[in-house]
Amino acid sequence: MSVDLVVVGLGHVGLPLAHRAAEAGLRTVGLDVSETVVNGLSAGRSHVGGVDDAQVAAMLGAGFEATVDPTVLGAARTVVICVPTGLAQDGTPDLSSVEAATRSVATELRPGTLVVLESTSYPGTTRDLVRPLLEDASGLRAGDDFHLAYSPQRIDPGNAHWTVRSTPKIVSGHTPRCAKRATAFYGRLVDNLVVARGTREAEMAKLLENTYRYVNIALVDEIALFCHESGIDTWDVLHCAATKPFGYAPFTPGAGVGGHCIPVDPHYLAAGAAAQGFPFRMLAAAHDVLGRMPGHVVERALRLLTEVRGDPRGARVLLLGVAYKPGVADVRESPARPVAAGLRAVGVEVSYHDPYVDGFSVEGRPLPRATELATALDGSDLAILLQEHPCYDMGQLVRARCALLDTRGRAAGRRVTLL
């Protein structure tokens, strides 16, 4: 039996795409290397924040199946690769998951199939990495025997307004005919399509989107560092600047950047540029600034603890919000880790409160979790607001017995210190 779509990789990108496809009436199969993920989905349990258990149940009711068996690829009209593209230990791009997924697809590739890469990577990945792997193993030719496309993911965890369907979707093809086929496919899932000139342009557009945020967050972080040294109210500066209705996009400083995209994607751009002999100087500067922010938070915390109790050693610090963004349980690349590690290194007792995160480890050691916020605040010398989850009552934080270091600019009061 033929399958309309096989989604390879059922993580934060692949599962929302599979959900939307099943919702749109496509016969959809999800392929993943993790039996835990597959068994959980088959039992109606979601493992990502963007799709809940009820939505998984609806997917199963619509005929969705999850499997670890790659032979399902041979029955697919369309295959979309949504595997992660992270960094190696040395900070360079790691495309091993893309390569492995592509080889699996190549083994089962049939004439007429549309293969789409959604994983973020440097310009040329679709043309120079994915295409040869598919062609060499299958004996088929992209643009002639099968269709090859690139369409960057635009998933924003926790955002109920901009979904897979409502977010404009960039689509590109190895040839114009490939782009036409990809446009027809995504047109069944997404309300607004944007056709790029080619796959390299679409790949570059994705890197630009996230590098734009990376650089601008670094800019306001350095503004915050300068304002702190100069005695200027950072948050008033940002508030005033944000009132300009043109030529300015507001960003806010914090303890660092997290998630899978913002801390990672600029490295792909830098690596791709370096391979062509082009140094991205602005990326290097932004990386330096962002790398300093967790240490800055630790330094501010230690100064506050010295004021409060004389010696930071043995002090009790409560981290509020260890997820990388508000309202989600995602802790990938969370700046809470280097902050906790820095505090622990000088003998501070660190715990955390986060209603979305059941467990959180730092350097291989679990961080104690507080479940009763009021009790945890009363038992702490200092609380550090790292993430402004919507459930946090700023009034409660301000009234707490302990001092508060607010890295998000949300609180104000006698015992509150802003970043």
How would you sum up this structure in a few lines?
The protein is of the alpha/beta class and 419 residues long. The protein has helices at residues 14-23, 35-42, 53-61, 96-108, 125-138, 176-186, 199-230, 234-241, 265-275, 281-309, 336-344, 373-378, 394-399; strands at residues 3-8, 28-31, 65-67, 76-81, 86-87, 93-94, 114-117, 147-150, 169-173, 193-195, 316-320, 349-353, 361-362, 365-366, 382-385, 403-406, 416-418.
Q: Whole-Å distance between the termini?
A: 59 Å
Instruction: Sketch the topology as an H/E string, one letter per element.
Output: EHEHHEEEEHEHEEHEHHHHEHEEEHEHEE
Tally of helical runs:
13
Q: How many beta-strand elements?
A: 17
Specify the helix fraction band. 25-40%
The low-confidence parts are none
Radius of gyration: 23 Å
* Structural class assignment: alpha/beta
- Tell me, briefly, the overall form: globular
What percentage of the residues does DSSP assign to strands (E)? 15-25%
- Biggest sheet overview: 8 strands, mixed
Describe the protein's architecture and organization.
The chain has 419 residues and is of the alpha/beta class. The protein has 13 helices and 17 strands. Strands 3-2-1-4-7-8-9-10 form an eight-stranded mixed β-sheet, with helices on both faces. It has helices at 14-23, 35-42, 53-61, 96-108, 125-138, 176-186, 199-230, 234-241, 265-275, 281-309, 336-344, 373-378, 394-399; strands at 3-8, 28-31, 65-67, 76-81, 86-87, 93-94, 114-117, 147-150, 169-173, 193-195, 316-320, 349-353, 361-362, 365-366, 382-385, 403-406, 416-418. Helix 4 packs parallel to helix 5 (125-138) and helix 10 crosses helix 11.
